[in-house]
Amino acid sequence: MKLAQLRHVITVARFGGLRRAARHLGIAQPAITKSIRDLEHELGATLFERSARGMVATPIGEAFIRRCVAAQLELERAQAEVQQLKGIGAGTVSIALSTAPHVSMLPRVLGPFQRKYPDVRLRITEGLFPVVEADIRSGAIDFYVGPLPEDKLGGEYQSEKLFDNQRVVLGRRDHPLGHATSLKDLVGARWVATSVTINSEAELFPLFEQHGLPNPIITIYAQSALSMITVAASSDVLAMLPRQWLAFSQASGLLTHIPIREQISAPAICMVSRTNLPLTPVAEYLSDLFRRAALNAN
Fold first, then answer.
1. Cα of 196 vs its chain's centroid, Å
2. pLDDT tens per residue across span 150-170
3. Contact at 8 Å (CB) between 4 and 10?
4. pTM for the structure as a whole
5. Which fold has domain 88-163+268-294?
6. Average pLDDT value for the chain
7. What is the assigned CATH class of domain 166-264?
8. How many helices (H) and strands (E) are present in the chain, helices listed first?
């Protein structure tokens, strides 16, 4: 089994066809065909099947490709780590951030990081842990900063709490409920929701139940802070977001803070990486910058 064969398999799976894969790699199509055929012979299994959509991975092929991608990422990380240990700032660091660290920590981190490693590419993904977990597990993302789901993390992950957090209620400017002072005043309001868990009701329903109030009316489900802000700023729908968004709402003028007296707790902001995958020196430096930024984030 050769590294070139793994690269060929990954590329065919990515582009869904031999011709497109060959064009992307800059090699002849027959060479890729032979490479994959030889690999299938070595494995004793069929990796791809032809269909109307092109080359489609078989179930065995899908499992093998996942391992190939992980192996390729490990090799790229190993190459970058060697260069970094030699004092050469190179490679890519991939991180995932929820909305709170995006707003309160990333601005403090970018300057020092880029000054020290101007030639390192930084790839940032916005998302909550369930959305990015597969990429953390595969090594495509070096570490995640944000809240964790209620389910306990498996032993394959290591988690470090950075700070405790709270939420606030935000609505559009001149919202009819803008002067509400309690959750009771918000009964009957419509909400946009997202969640650290798969169930979007898990954030709002327990809050209202805790105060003996009927479940809120969730009319829109969003997967990003941008969606939530856009919805809240352009309608009478309310949003519950980490308190770090207060500064943005004041600066932008798009949203207003609805100052209810109840404290709305939020999951702690944590840093998560794989237990058996040490960070490269550059990624470790970046993670330390997030630790420092956390001191002033809440």
1. 11
2. 777 888 899 999 999 999 999
3. no
4. 0.70
5. D-Maltodextrin-Binding Protein; domain 2 (3.40.190)
6. 87
7. alpha beta
8. 11, 11
